[in-house]
Amino acid sequence: MASRRVVKVAAPRLRDGLRAVALSVDELGDEAFLEDLALTELDLGAASGRLVDMTGCRWTQCRLAGSELEKLTISDTVFDHCDLANARWADSSAVRTEFLSCRLTGMSAPTMSLQHVTIRDSILDLSSWRFAKFSRVEFIDCRLTNADFVSAELGGTVFRGCDLSGAEFSNATANKAVFVECQWEGTRGIGSLGGATIANTSPTDHLAVAAAMASALQITLAHPDAL
User: Fold this and answer.
1) How far apart are CA 184 and CA 222, in angstroms?
2) Which of 143, 193, 211, 213 is most buried (CB neighbours < 10 A)?
3) Is-contact 170 193, C-beta < 8 A?
4) pLDDT tens for residues 59-78?
C-alpha cells in the first residue's frame, strides 16, 4: 500500500499567557501592530486599514466579516470559530496561521501569499484567491463551492475531504498538489491541474472528475447506444 502523503505544515508559535484585550475598530486601522494578544468575541467587521501586522495572536469567536485590510501581515496566529465572510484582504500574507471552523464565505484575497497555513472545517463558498500563492497549505474538510482559484499557485497544496463543486481553477498551477476524497461536481478549469494527484474512493466522484476533465478538453462523453 502506498504511504499516505503528508504535507508538513508548521503550526503557529503562540506564547503562553496571551494578553486579553477588548480591541476597538479604531485600533485596527492603518499600520496597527497586534502582538501576543487573546481576542475573544469582538465585532470588528467595520475595520479598515493598510499595513496591519498581527503576530502571535489568538482570535476566538470574533467577527471580522466585511473588514478591508490591505497588505495585512499575519504570522503565528489562530482564528478559531471566527466570521470572516466578505472580508477583503488584498495583497496580504499569512505565515504559520490556522483557520479553524471559520466562515470565509465570499472572502476576497487576491495575490495573497500563504505559507504554512491550515484551514480546517471551514466554509469558503464564493471565496476568491486569484493570483494567490500557496506554499505548504492544507485545506481539511472545507466547503469551497464556487471558490475562485484563477491563476493561483497551488503547487504542493493539499485539499483533503473538501467540496470543490463549481470551483474555478483556470490558469492555476498545481504541480504536486494533492486532492484526497474531494467532490468535483461542476468544477471548472480542471485542465489546469497538471501535475496534481487526485484520489477518490467514490465512483461518483471519479465520474465527476472525468466529466470535468472531458469538458476542459472539449471531449463529449456519450453512451455507445446513443451513437
Assistant:
1) 19
2) 193
3) no
4) 999 999 999 999 999 999 99
Backbone torsions φ then ψ of 203, nearest 5 degrees: -60, -35
**Does a structural domain hold residue 226?**
no
Give the length of the chain: 227
DSSP 8-state class, residue 110: T
Q: Give the C-alpha distances (Å, rounded to integers) separating 212 from 30, 128, 183, 185, 186.
A: 44, 20, 11, 8, 7
> Which among 139, 129, 55 has a CA at the least distance from the CA of 100?
139
The mean pLDDT value of the chain amounts to 92
Q: Using CA atoms, how far apart are residues 46 and 90, in angstroms rounded to an integer?
A: 16
Q: How confident is the model at residue 11 (pLDDT cuts 50, 70, 90)?
A: very high
Residue 6 lies inside a defined structural domain of this protein: no
Query: How far apart, in whole angstroms, are the C-alpha atoms of residue 71 and residue 51?
Result: 5
The DSSP letter of residue 75 is E
Cell of 52: 496591519
- pLDDT value at residue 3: 46
State the Cα–Cα distance between residues 86 and 202, nearest whole angstrom.
Answer: 33
Q: What is the pLDDT of residues 135-191, one digit of tens each?
A: 999 999 999 999 999 999 999 899 999 999 999 999 999 999 999 999 999 999 998
Return d(Cα 183, Cα 121) in angstroms, integer.
Answer: 15
Alpha helices in 131-218 (DSSP H): 203-216
Are residues 124 and 176 both part of a single domain? no
The CATH number that applies at residue 103 is 2.160.20.80
List phi, psi (to 5°) of 37.
Answer: -115, 150
**CA distance readout (Å), 112 to 43, 44, 88, 92, 212:** 24, 21, 11, 5, 27
